[in-house]
Amino acid sequence: MPLTFCLKSFTFLVRELLMLRLIGISFADNEKVSYRIYAFFCNVLLFGYPVIAFSDLFKHEFDIVADLLIYELATIMVCCEAFVVMWNRQKLKALFRKLECAPFTPNFERGGEVEESFLKDFSIVTGRQANICWGSVFSTVGMSIVATIIKRVRSSDYRDWEFTYGPLTVLDVTRSPYFEITWLYQITCVLVIGLTHCSVILIISEILGHASVQFKILQNNLSQVTENAHRIMTKKVRGVAGDEVDVSKVPWKYLQKSLNEAISYHLSILDVTSEVEKTINMLTLIIFLFSLAVTCFQVYHASILSAFNVRFLKCFTDSSSAIFPVFILCFWSHQVAHESEQVAKYAFQANFVGSDLRYQKGLNLIMVRGQRPVILKAGKFIEISLPTFVSIIRASYSAFMVLRSVNEK
Fold first, then answer.
1. How many CB atoms lie within 10 A of CB 22?
2. pTM of the model
């Protein structure tokens, strides 16, 4: 069964893992034979479609082949994503379980109710993100179903019949029911491919987002690390006032305990972010390379079309769909870098004036480490950040304008 975050009203990756299970990729150790047969059927649809569609690249004119090539690249990308996920299933499952356990769960003694509030807010954001991504898949496929059915019902001439995602001539589609069978096969495959792609993107983004939330919890912990030490002292020493905190009167052993907990938590977050990068770097590289390849083809195709052509609008929407997953990854990775860099600021805000010198030195070490943000990379060489995404958009627009001016001449 899908893994669940052990928290009263918060779930971690349950939606995404359930969706992957519905389309044939399960993280459970012992599945029934019936599910394995079902998963095999889904995998045949996913991995078989690009093989079947490949033959049509050599049967049509350039404009049609250009569209087919874009769909083929997108399909191969999703197949690569699914293969990498299944290949690294055990590593991903170990990572999920680690994020579900202490010190990454809410701890009232460490940060109060704020920690649970951070995680609940994050759950709401990721829930909306998932609804938008999956909703876009269902709405896009749904509209294509309606459009193609209308064309099929209105005309009995096979030349008016249309496949939304490029022609597929594995059967004689000029006759019924071969056209309907092929159409149904294409729609089913595209739906499985779209849901797989969205689920993989959502899993990666939610892991990155969870890491950024952990840094926010650490910031909250550091801002009250002195107060935590004072609270520990009031529990163990009688006659100490519990309201006002005079850090100069807090012994080193209590400051050390509170500081060690914060440092240990900081190191745990750094370790898990390093593990996240090692686990997903191949996935993110695949997404970046294929999304850029699809965008390049779309930019070229759009440059030879009129701005008032319907196909130009289609190129724009398709390129936006290709680049949107890159934006999601860049956004959440940028959040991780930003929040990790803010750790130094919150360590400086701790109440340390007049405290033990060893305590001040410990906070200073946290500040020094916090000044080096956690930078995640795709394939260990492409920085995943918003500046990277902006540079991609700029390069795409520049290439489009250059090609447009050349074609107009």
1. 14
2. 0.88
